Amino acid sequence: MNLKKIISKAMMGSFLLASPTAAEPLYVNTEITHYQMDKGQDEGEKDLARISLTDKLEESWLFVKSFDGKEVWFENGLNESEGSVVFDVEVLKRILESENIEKIVFYHTHPALLDTNDISQIPSAFDILSDVYLIQLIKGWRPELLCHVESKVVVSTGIYALKYNPEIFFDFEKMGLLEKTSYEVMEENRKVEEGNSEFDYSFPNFDNFGILNKNFASKYSNDFIQITFRDGNDE
Questions:
Q1: 120 vs 26: CA distance, rounded Å
Q2: 123: which residues sit within 8 A by CB, 6+ positions away?
Q3: Interval 64-116: pLDDT, tens
Q4: d(Cα 25, Cα 50) in Å, to the nearest integer?
């Protein structure tokens, strides 16, 4: 599969997957031209941690590890803004043409909001719904990969890992957990923004953000989704 060729995108024109050298850091890219980079997962996560602290826009990437050990990051964000980014499905679609995939990780960053109740510290309902949409696509295109897909949200204080139970995607009744979890997370985001949540993300409480994030991850984990948080200070 030649991921550097021009790929047609409905309603978006066309783009070329350019390839910076691995020595360069991952970066927010607002151009229509996406890029890919050979880089290890840990090294790439360090780049994303820096981006979350220093950049004002959200951005999205796909990390792919192949059975031959090759690790590649694919930037795939569209319409980057301070509060959202759109995942370019065409990049995923082309990647899934390869039979050499060992695992796939969806990544996106949340820029820090240090002058207010920092809602950027927690995943949003939209984050979860976007993951589920993408996993549903993988289910349709490459169902054998469902057990090898993960999502990560990089915030200024660390990284959330969201692992979805693949069995849920084959059980319509259990999919009701999605609606329940998404609604609860949406309500928690609203409470944090208004300053009346059990999770105090006001700037004076910054030193406790890591603990709060781990508590958030524990509270919203269930049979549908397992959420963990790795504090950047623990590395």
A1: 20
A2: 153, 160, 162, 185, 227
A3: 999 999 999 999 999 999 999 999 999 999 999 999 999 999 999 999 987 78
A4: 10
- Distance, C-alpha 196 to centroid of its chain: 27
- pLDDT of 53 reads 94
Count of structural domains within the chain: 1
End-to-end CA distance of the chain: 36
Rounded Cα distance between 22 and 42, Å, is 13
CA distance linking residue 79 with residue 229, whole number of Å: 27
Query: For residue 118, is it within any domain?
Result: yes
Write out the two tokens for 123: 């995943």
Which of 142, 136, 140 is CA-nearest to residue 100?
142
User: 1 in a domain, yes or no?
Assistant: no
Give this prediction's pTM: 0.90
Give me the domain span that covers residue 219: 6-234
- Residue 92 makes CB contacts below 8 A (sequence gap 6+) with 62, 76, 134, 137, 138
**Distance (Å, whole) CA 225 – CA 228:** 10
The β-bridge relationship of strands 6-9 and 13-16 is antiparallel
Contact yes or no for 201/207 (Cβ under 8 A): no
Report the alpha-carbon distance of residue 175 to residue 167 in Å, rounded: 10
Q: What's the Rg (C-alpha) of the chain?
A: 17
Nearest alpha-carbon partner for 160 in 113, 121, 131? 121
Q: Which helix (H) or strand (E) holds 103?
A: strand 101-109
Query: Is residue 37, in this structure, part of any structural domain at all?
Result: yes
